[in-house]
Write a structure and sequence with these properties.
alpha/beta; nine-stranded mixed beta sheet; Alpha-Beta Plaits; two-stranded antiparallel ribbon
């Protein structure tokens, strides 16, 4: 039985495709975007989140840790990540929810049982199921089985992807996807490597191929001040998008730093701590630049 690892299921989502949707977040991503707002989705393995501001200092987690990874240090509870085996015993005894396991192994049937509860909302609103991440194509076999199961039940399906994958994995899911929410971050390959850790060449090739096959695509461009909102990248993005044979519209997604607490909980540094949300007038200017190329543009997902 094929299983996969997910880290969240968001009910009543209205920004991940048409209508009221259920968004299933698959764990694992080949990119390490400096602005990522789901850092817990990057590592494909389950992870332990620790929120020190919620810790009551009761010490109940210390004796239950089989690896001795949790101890008192300078009047506070600390965890040695190298010694932690991610068993989750400490989470079970944490009354204040300072500790949380992120990522659980599930079967296709378990995911379907969860999303099928919302079918009445899909039917009333024209919604459905969206698979996001992380990067859903990081688990291609599991994603394909999930999509097939949803289509067999008549659900509208969307995949939120950066497209960093081999074409075969993308081609395999095409017939089961009603809408691709395609993340386009930077056109310049060198800058893309700098801010995401990988080349954008497979992403651009797969985008072109999907469009040539006539797939329903919405380009999603995160607007990161000082990273990809310059004139050169905007015009290069517009030229690429305008040349696609099939494209519904471009969505501009304003950057926000509300994920900073997630990085702290994972014991990681946040790369863009001083970057702020782009002003509305700047977003309007960007939208205007893209519309000059005949593109339909929407601010927000």
């Amino acid at each position: 039985m094929t299983t996969g690892i997910i880290f969240d299921v968001k009910k009543f989502s209205i920004h991940d495709g048409p209508g009221i949707r259920t968004t299933v977040f698959l764990k694992g991503c080949p990119l390490q975007c400096s602005w990522c707002h789901n850092p817990e989705g990057q590592d494909p393995r389950p992870q332990l989140l620790y929120r020190p501001d919620r810790c009551l200092g009761c010490g109940e987690c210390i004796p239950v840790c089989p690896e001795g990874a949790i101890r008192w240090e300078k009047d506070k509870v600390t965890t040695d990540p190298e010694a932690c085996s991610l068993c989750g015993d400490c989470v079970e005894v944490c009354f204040s929810d300072a500790r949380e396991m992120v990522g659980r192994q599930v079967t296709v049937s378990e995911v379907l049982a969860e999303v099928e509860r919302d079918v009445p909302f899909y039917d009333q609103s024209g919604g459905g199921v969206t698979f996001s991440g992380g990067e859903p194509l990081f688990q291609p076999e599991f994603l394909l089985l999930l999509l097939r199961a949803c289509k067999e039940r008549g659900m509208h399906t969307a995949v939120d992807t950066c497209g960093h994958s081999d074409w075969q994995s993308v081609d395999d899911i095409r017939d089961c996807v009603d809408l691709f929410l395609y993340d386009l971050k930077l056109i310049d390959d060198e800058k893309h490597r700098l801010f995401t850790g990988v080349s954008n060449q497979s992403s651009l090739r797969n985008l072109q191929a999907l469009s040539q096959h006539g797939e329903n695509i919405i380009l999603r461009m995160p607007v990161i001040p000082g990273v990809n909102d310059g004139e050169e990248n905007l015009r290069a993005t517009a030229e690429l998008a305008a040349a696609l044979p099939s494209l519904a519209r471009v969505d501009l997604l304003p950057y926000h730093n509300t994920a900073m607490h997630k990085y702290r909980s994972l014991g990681r540094a946040f790369s863009l701590p001083d970057t702020q949300r782009p002003p509305d007038d700047h977003l309007a200017t960007i939208a205007g630049t893209l519309r000059e190329f005949g593109l339909q543009v929407q601010i927000g997902g």
